[in-house]
TrEMBL record:
This is Probable queuosine precursor transporter. The chain crosses the membrane at residues 52-69, 81-100, 120-144, 156-184, 190-213. Pfam families: Vut_1. The keyword DNA-binding does not apply. Belongs to the vitamin uptake transporter (VUT/ECF) (TC 2.A.88) family. Q precursor transporter subfamily.
Length: 228
């Protein structure tokens, strides 16, 4: 039902998966708001501000790649990739912290900017690690569990079902811990943040599903150890 991980495709997907997580962890430190401070109407309805973070456009890719790994290589192989990503996030945070603590050269004038961009905020690191670990594990577990029942049929159900569960767990945990760090201080903004994040990530999965289908089909055909 799954392919072995000794092929080059698995390594390439894991590398992209890890890179996505590392980049998202940095860009998520920026709070983003659309339709804020202006009255925007859609017919008779006023559009409320949409609160999210700077990783909203990239982070869904991590779940798409997680789905590909789970569908083609199974839970154990995906768990290995998740642990690698987890370790990479910790290493990145430690390296950022060390770089910031090192004494600045007399000609270096960007210490404050460096701290602002990559400064290690314990709550934000914790939010990213906890949300990522729980969300990705749930995503992979649900997809594999559905596949055990449906076999090769109903791939769409596996992709959407696993994303809904994984993204909800990830978004709720991350937002609960990180909201205060990026400036969200009211329940209204927090609920907005959670709902927008969850709906967007789930919608992104649906929108790119045709591409996900093609990637999965490509890998299944070219992985010689994949067994239906």
């Amino acid at each position: 039902m799954f392919a072995r991980v000794n092929g080059s495709y698995y390594a390439a997907i894991v590398a992209l998966f890890t890179a996505t997580l590392l980049i998202s962890n940095v860009t998520a430190s920026k709070g983003v708001s659309f339709f804020s401070g202006s009255d925007v109407f859609l017919g008779p309805f006023q559009i409320l501000p949409i609160n999210t973070d700077g990783a909203f456009f990239l982070f869904p890719l991590a779940y798409i790649l997680g789905d590909v790994l789970s569908e083609v290589y199974g839970f154990k192989a995906t768990r290995r990739a998740i642990y690698l990503g987890f370790a990479s996030l910790i290493l990145t945070s430690v390296c950022f912290w060390i770089a910031i603590q090192l004494p600045s050269a007399s000609f270096y004038e960007n210490q404050q900017s460096l701290e602002t961009v990559v400064g290690v905020v314990p709550r934000l690191v914790l939010a990213g690690l906890a949300g990522y670990l729980v969300g990705q594990m749930l995503n992979s577990l649900v997809l594999v569990a559905i596949k055990e029942r449906t076999k090769e049929k109903h791939l769409w159900a596996r992709l959407i079902g696993s994303t809904i569960v994984g993204e909800f767990g990830d978004t709720l945990i991350f937002c609960s811990i990180a909201a205060g760090v990026i400036g969200i201080s009211t329940w209204t903004d927090f609920i907005n943040y959670v709902i927008v994040g969850f709906l967007w990530k789930t919608l992104a999965e649906v929108l790119v599903m045709p591409i996900t289908y093609r990637v999965i089909a490509y890998l299944k055909k070219r992985e010689p150890t994949y067994a239906v």
